Amino acid sequence: MMLDIVDLLKSKNAETVRREDTFSAVLFNQTLECKELVEEAFRFEGITTPASIENTDENIRRHVRESSIEVVLVDLNRSQNVAKDMERISHLLPNHASVIVIGSEDAISTIRNLKQMGFYYLFWPITKEELVDFVKHVYENRKKQAGLGKNRIAKKVAFWGSKGGLGTTLLTSEVGLILSDLKNSSCVIVDHNFTGGDIDIFLGIPDFEKRSVQKGGLTTSMDFSYATSMTKKVNDMLSVLSIKSSELNELELKEYVRIFATELARQNNFILEDLSRSVNSKQDLLYVSQECDIFVLIIEPSVSSVREACRLIAELDKIGSPLRCILVMNYTRPEMSATITRSEVEKCLGQKIDIVCDFDKSAGKDIIEGKHIYQLKTALSSNLHKLTGLILGQQMIPTKRFSIKRLLKGRA
C-alpha cells in the first residue's frame, strides 16, 4: 500500500512538472521545411505542437490575439528584408507574447534591429536541438519576466494641433478606430484636455465621464492594472484615458497622465496622444520629443497656424528630436476661405505636406448622428485611411491623374 502511495505521488509530481513546461505557441510559416522542422522538434521534446498557419498579414491579424498565446514563431525565410517585414507587422503582434523570428538573413544589423524592436532572431538553417534549446531559453526568460519581450512597448503617436479648432481630436479618434477595428492593433487614446472636450462624441461613447484622480493617488504599487482601471473601453481593442481632478492643477494632471501612459504602453500596440489644446507648452513639446515615436502636426491654411507650425518645427530641430513627422493640412472651412495656398505653406515650412484633408460640409452632421468618418465613402475618410497607413509605415501609391486633353485625344 505504501508503494502505491509513493508511485501515485511521483506520478502527480511528474504531471505537475509537465504542466509547468507546457506553453501555447503558434507558428506563422512561409516554408514547408521550417513548418516540418518546428513541428518535429516540438513533438520530439514532448512539447505541445504549435498551431501552424500560413504567414500572411491577414492570418496574423485574425489568429494572434488570443490571450493564451505565449510564444509566436514567425518564419521569414522568403523575406528580402527581415527587419523591415517585422516592423511592418509589429502592430499586429500582442506585447504579452514572446516573438521568435526565423530567417536566413545573416547580418549583424538584422539581429540588432530586431533586438531593438523586442524580437528574438534565430538564423536558418537550424537543427531540432538548436530550436528546442532556443525556445526553452525564451520560455525561461518569460517565467523570469526577463529577456527581449520587456523591450516591446507601444508606438507613441502625438497628434499636435498648431492651434485650437483644427480637428485634432477628430483625427486622433478616427485613426484610433481604424487601427483597432481594421488593423487589429490594441490602442489607447490619451486625452490631454482635463476640463472638457468632445472626445466622447467623436468616439461615440454614451454617458461618458472622465476618471477622477486625487492627490496622493499615485503610489509605488501603481501598475498596468491600475492604469487600465483609469481607462474607458471603446471597443475590444481601443480604450481612452481621460482624467480630471478638483484637487490637482494642470501640471500635476499632466504628470499623472504620462505615468498612466507609460504603464499602458507595456501591453498595447499604440498610444495616441491627443494634444489638441492651444495651451500646449514648450515642456509638452520636450516630452513629445523624448517619449513619442511619431509626430502628427496638424495645420490649417492660415498665416497664424503656419507661423506656429514653423516655430514648432524649429524647436524640434533645436532639441534634435528623432521624431518621424507627418504633416497634415486640414481644411476646417471651404478652400475659398483659406488665406494662404498649399504651395506657400510648403515653402514657409520647408517641407511637403503629407496629407491634405479637404473640407467636408457633412462631417459635423455625420458625427452628431453617431457615424464614424472612416466607415463612410468620402474624400475625408480616404485621407484618414492614408494617414493611418503613413503611421504604419506603409508607402502611399500616388493617384494617377488624367488630363482632359489627353482623354479627348485618346478618343479622337
Comma- or semicolon-separated keywords:
Rossmann fold, 412 residues, eight-stranded mixed sheet, disordered C terminus, five-stranded parallel sheet, single chain, 15 strands, alpha/beta, 2 domains
> Got a strand count?
15
Helicity level? 40-55%
Provide the gyration radius in Å. 25 Å
Specify the biggest β-sheet: 8 strands, mixed
How much of the residues is beta strand, in percent? 15-25%
The first-level CATH class name of the largest domain: Alpha Beta
Widest sheet: strand ordering: 9-10-7-12-6-13-14-15
Q: Give me the secondary-structure category.
A: alpha/beta
Bulk shape: globular
CATH topology assignment of the largest domain: Rossmann fold
CATH homolog superfamily of the largest domain: P-loop containing nucleotide triphosphate hydrolases
* Termini separation: 102 Å
**Poorly predicted parts:** 8-20, 398-412
Average of pLDDT: 85
Number of helices: 16
Count up the domains. 2
* Oligomeric organization of the protein chains: single chain
CATH hierarchy: architecture of the largest domain: 3-Layer(aba) Sandwich
